[in-house]
Amino acid sequence: MSDTSLTGLRRQTEPEELVGPGTLFCFWREGGSMSCTIEKVLADAKELVERLREHDGAAESLIEQTTTLNKRVEAMKQYQEEVQELNEIARHRPRSTLVLGIQQENRQIRQLQQENKELHGSLKEHQSALELIMTKYREQMFRLLMASKKDDPGIIMKLKEQHSKELEAHIEKISEMTAVMRRAIEMDEQQDNQEHDRIIKLEQENKRLREILQITKLSFLNLHKDDAPENPSHSAPVPNTDLSLRKS
Question: Which intervals of the chain are annotated as region Disordered (predicted)?
């Protein structure tokens, strides 16, 4: 050990104990030789190193906190400045310009919404096209594997199962669509049948009414013929009744 690490020690004939931070238990003998506990020195050194590391970590955390606080303060200052600028601009501008600006912003928002709708539709189209391409690709791969792996029954069975599942899904979709179309056709046919029945009923009623009207006309004409020779004086008003019946 060096002389600097053993400062504060006095040379004595009897052993003396030094107490303090980083205490070293050293003993001077009569011949001037010194024996120190190296383990204690190493333990104290380790403690000091750990404390220094803790202090360094605390200092780094404090530095990080101060930097984040400074950034927040700067952001708040910038926000306040921008708000003040906007308030000053709004004070100088009339309300009409503000309303026009809001209307323009609303138009832009509507245009963006329309563009979003169009993009959503195009995305759906691309997805459907991609699904179609993937189905075609799977079919081609299935054919290639069937051609190349004719001797392997396990792979063929797996591919057949996969292909059958896809076909079943497509068949289910097609069956659902056909059921919906059949239902719509049945409803249309029911409506057409109801309208046809109604037209037939109206035609029958019209025919019956015409027959009744014809019978009444004939009966009135027969009465007029029977009354003509008996009452010649009353022959004039009968045609008027016939005309009124015809009008009716």
Answer: 225-248
